[in-house]
TrEMBL record:
Highest classification ranks of the organism: Bacteria, Bacillati, Actinomycetota, Actinomycetes, Pseudonocardiales
Family annotation (Pfam families): GH43_C2 (PF17851), Glyco_hydro_43 (PF04616)
PROSITE patterns: TAT
Keywords: Glycosidase, Hydrolase, Signal
Gene3D superfamilies assigned to the protein according to its UniProt record, in alphabetical order: 2.60.120.200, Glycosyl hydrolase domain, family 43
Record-linked InterPro entries: ConA-like_dom_sf, GH43_C2, Glyco_hydro_43, Glyco_hydro_beta-prop_sf, Glycosyl_Hydrlase_43, TAT_signal
The protein's name in its UniProt record: Xylosidase
Any GO BP: carbohydrate metabolic process
Record carries keyword Lyase: no
Domain Beta-xylosidase C-terminal Concanavalin A-like: 331-523
Protein family according to the UniProt entry: Belongs to the glycosyl hydrolase 43 family.
GO molecular function: hydrolase activity, hydrolyzing O-glycosyl compounds
Residues annotated as signal peptide: 1-20
Amino acid sequence: MARRRTWIMGLVVATAVALAGGGPAQSVSARAAATYSNPVVWQDFADGDIIRVGDTYYYSASTMHYSPGAPVLRSYDLVNWEYAGHSVPRLDFGAKYDLNGGRGYVRGIWASFLNYRKSNSTFYWGGCVDFANTHIYTAADVGGQWQKLTTINKCYYDAGMLVDDNDTMYVSYGNTTISVAQLSPDGKTEVRSQQVFSTPSNVGTLEGSRFYKRNGFYYIFLTRPANGQYILKASNPFGPYTMQQVLLNMPSPIPGGGVPHQGGLVQTQNGDWYYMAFVDAYPGGRVPVLAPITWTADGWPRVTTVNGGWGASYPFPNLPAHPVTPMTGVDTFTGPALGPQWEWNHNPDTSKYTVGNGLRLQTATVTNDLYSARNTLTHRIQGPSSTATVTLDLSAMRDGDRTGLAMLRDSSAWIGIKRDGGRNRVVLQNNITMDGNWNTSNTGGEAASAAFGGTKIWLRANADIRPGSGRQATFSYSTDGVTFTRFGPAFTLNNAWQFFMGYRFGVFNYAGQALGGAVTLQRFDLSTP
C-alpha cells in the first residue's frame, strides 16, 4: 500500500542501532558484530503481540480509546520498526467511543491478539471490549482495509491466538483462571472452551496470554503484572499444563523504568528466538524492549541476560537490512488520508475534517472542555525526549474557537489560540485534569496570554518523557517558523500508571460558542535532539 504521508526525512535503511540512536546503513557482515539498544521503540506500544510472516515482522499494541485502534508496526530486523496500519478502523463498540453522549477513556482496545493464517493468507486480530464481547477483524494486508469478521458473545480477556499445524485456531485467555477456546474453521464461532490452568496463590495474578507451539508442545506465555513472566507447557492444547517462571523482578534496561514483562515470543527465519516485552516508562507510557531467547534441552525458554538483567544492548539479530520509514519526521498531509502514525482521541466526526494540502479541522464540538472535544488528533511522543512543531492557518477561526497543541493525558496543558471578540490571543492553558473515573475535574485556566495579530502560527512543545516524576514539557510559539518565543511556565507531567496510555501530542480545534470555524494544520514536525 502506498504510504499516505510525506516524511521529508525519507526512508532510512535498517541500521545496527535502535531508533533512539541512528547511523549509516551497514552490510550484514558488519552488523553481525554490532549491537542494538533498548528500547527498540521508544514510543507507547503496550501489550504487544509479535509475529513473523515470511521475512517480515509485525507488532500489534493496545490503544484504549484512541481511533483507529490496534496499530500494527512492521520490521524486517526486529530493531527498526515503522507504522504499517490499524486492525480496528473504527471503535464500533457504542456511542461512548464517539465522544457523543458518553466517553470511552481507558476502555476500548486492551491486550489483544494478532496472527496470520497461511491457509487463507489472512491476518486475524481479536480482542475483548468492555469486558463483554470479543471482536475479530481480518485483512489480507496489515496496511489495507480491515473488516470485522465476527463478534463472539464472550470475553476472551487478554487473549492470544494459535494457528495449529492442522490449521485449527485456538485462543488462550483469562485472568488467574486460564482457558483455551477452539474456534470454528471459519473463525466466526466458538466450538469448545475449557479451563486449562489455575494460577497458584503464591504466584498471584497471571494474564496477557500468548499461545505458541514448538517441537510438538503447546505453550501459554503469561505475565504477572507488572513484574513477572511465566510460561505453561503441555502436549495438548487443552492441557494438562505445567508452569515455569521466566522472569521476576528482572532489572530494567531503561533507567527508572519498570520490569520488562508481557509481550510475546517470535522465531526468526534463521531459527533464532526473541522476546519482545514492554517496560512501564511513565509519563511516556509502556515501551517495547527486545532480548534473545534460548531453550533448555527439555523445552523451556530462558531470557539472555546481561549482568543479571535485561540488557541495555545485545548483538544485532542475524537478519538483513531493509528500508523502513522513520517514526519521526514531517507530515504535510498531502492526502488522501491520514497516515498510520495518527490516531484520534475517540472516533472522529469524519464530516468535520479533510486531508489534502494540509489537514483542515472544522470545529466538531461546542464545549469548554478539551476532554469532550471531538476530532483531537494525536501522535505518540518519541523518547527519551522530543519536540513537536505544528503550523496552523488560523484565518477561518470564529469567535469562541480554541485551537492548539496539547500535552494530552489525564493531566493536560496546551499552547494555542483563543479567538474572542474578533481578536486572537496566544494562550497557555494548564491544570486540565480528570478524576479517577476519567471525568473532567478541571477545564484549566490561563497561565500565560498575549495578543496575536497574525493568521498563521507555529506552536511547539518539547517533552521529556524519561521514566520518573517531575518530568516537564515546555511550550513556545513563532510568527515566522524560525524564531520561537518560550511561553508560559513549564508543565510537569503526571507519571501515574492508572491511565495506562502515556502522554501524546494532540492537535485540537473546538468551538466555545457555535460550530462553523476551522483551522488548517499545514505541517507537523516530530524531531529529537
